[in-house]
């Protein structure tokens, strides 16, 4: 242990505690086995543990030492176990003449064996016996365990003799790892020393290969379960990639193979340099500080660093806010840089192992391991790389012929990745180490070198595996040094629930998605993007824009505008001409436009399409923007892109296309309406002619302009069926598998609160509305079509789910059940959502549509929000023509196209202000059900 007397002073006074416990026993008999005495002993132990842990927490908050905290908690636990053992030995089950079999050693194993404990860690113990169990040993063990359990500790334990430990360690890798870290606590110390000697001699010797392979396989499986990226924004600090368990695995392997007892000894062995050892200790100390704070804060062994605790831990660790970055974002950036260091240390150790194995694999018995780590080992294959002096393919991996290859030509720091990508091979560990040690060569001169930039652009736009190559460039530090603007976003986390990865990981993943689209993989998810990417005039502007689209995150200004400015500076350096540079800058500046408009605007409103076409200006830009948008959303995280978003993007693309191709001349409105009526009449050829003529006159002009032909036909059949049966209420539920939504159509007598009732029914049944379209007929009916997120894989199950919603709507309209009460934000927010604060904002736009006022409402998402908003809009005497719901993690943007009761836009400034106030209050769950103010009624 590396604690000084000063570090542990005041945590627990074991001698004073022993004396206190002895005072509870009978002075005459010295017996502490009765229940009354036991209760006193337990209370004294509880107080000592509580006071000790409080002192440890206080010191953690004062000095921030993570390892010190873990060591102090381990020391506290050791002392408690020693006191309990001594009390049991001397006052409960004392024997005057113990036999050779009545010996017991209490040994810490696992993480506790390393001398580290988190506040919520298990206490793993091995009760070591010389031979078989005796009644005395059983009593001592039972007393210790019950005391620890009564203290509220979770204890992992085993009672074994030395022979059992050796035998089980040979067959069970988990037990072998536990015994590897065995540490003596109390009892018979020679017994413990005998175990260590037998373990090294009978288990460890000659089995390094098997152990290392098993631990690396175990690590890979753990990464697969936790998520293969170390840049997940809610990481598991113990089990996740780049977490404490990875450091543990490194030390297990080093301890087992190099026969060391501490990390410092790895420097003497030449495995780690002094600076690498310091990185190891700093990484471990930081991760332990985070873990201990997390356990103390949550009061449980929580290992996931979730949003709701990140900010509090950031403050405890002393992080402050900087321009463009919150305190929590600076903390998490440090976390991810540490996780990256852990990955670097893993590669360094594996390289050291491999070098040693290669020198004498036959003697060490590690041939199998070397072949697994080093494909082709034993075949002696070393092949020069054509056209690349200084590089060879050695046993299936790229290596150098001389350690001066980068000194001789710094452009080789880019060339190495171009070669690896072209040949589809990995870098040799020695190469990786040499690259890291050569990063100082990447300076202004290299960044301006045309050849270096050509090589980088070749990697970026590769048709092979650009994502894999760029990630390797990032992990070695080359990418952030060669493109300093990228270096600024390395390990940067955005504190929101929308993005699943750090900014640099998102950018690299987006390149991977782009390459996937270009190869035609996963075309079922984005068929239009797959089709369009093959028709591009210039694919490299797309890849450069994709790489740079979030490059300005973390700055005080809008990252799209700042990113465009960076692109204009950096693209000429990459070798792009003026026109290409402007296209890249335009794509970055507008990279959010298509997604925003598709998800939050009425795509049947021609002004929306016309305005968007004026921004885009050309078909080539439209293609580029669609592909970039699809890749960007897909790279945000699993499940973020879905069929519904894809359908909205395709609709916007196809609506905008005629405006840009010149193949569209504005057809007169009357002609468009007449054509739509004739088209539907042709589809209804099985209806009597008079019924067809009567039906087409039931719809206003807006209906014919914005409703798709297939939906017009479905509405006609539903309405005729209702007319025939005399029903004034009808429903239709249609699942859409590809779009991942279910369409629910409601036919009912027109009512200003109809959409609110529908939203309330969805809220009650847990359905999530993503879009809504409202139409009215000339004879006083409304056709409300809502789209809800699909939840069930089978169409029939999803249809039944939709029917449950319609049953609630029907009962509400009939007065058989009431609507739910408004849901306040405070009541609705749970778990991670409480960590976020999004100020409500209500914008009133009269320029977005020729016919409607558009209300754009943003705020913190919560259950029942849409219901509360639609209720408020109804009280404001507004008619809703369509509603569009977009959710970006914790932030929601709801857009409503509305008119007053006379069908006019809301032009009165006073009424607009009332609308803003009412809807901002509704976002917080305060729904004012009183009639609209007089100024509002006058305006209507």
From TrEMBL:
A GO molecular-function descriptor: [protein-PII] uridylyltransferase activity
Keywords linked to the UniProt accession: Hydrolase, Magnesium, Multifunctional enzyme, Nucleotidyltransferase, Repeat, Transferase
Residue span(s) of domain HD: 503-625
EC number: 2.7.7.59, 3.1.4.-
This protein's record includes keyword Disulfide bond: no
Source taxon at top rank: Bacteria
Protein family (similarity comment): Belongs to the GlnD family.
Function: Modifies, by uridylylation and deuridylylation, the PII regulatory proteins (GlnB and homologs), in response to the nitrogen status of the cell that GlnD senses through the glutamine level. Under low glutamine levels, catalyzes the conversion of the PII proteins and UTP to PII-UMP and PPi, while under higher glutamine levels, GlnD hydrolyzes PII-UMP to PII and UMP (deuridylylation). Thus, controls uridylylation state and activity of the PII proteins, and plays an important role in the regulation of nitrogen metabolism.
Record's protein name: Bifunctional uridylyltransferase/uridylyl-removing enzyme
Organism: Roseibium hamelinense
Upper lineage: Bacteria, Pseudomonadati, Pseudomonadota, Alphaproteobacteria, Hyphomicrobiales
Recorded name of the encoding gene: glnD
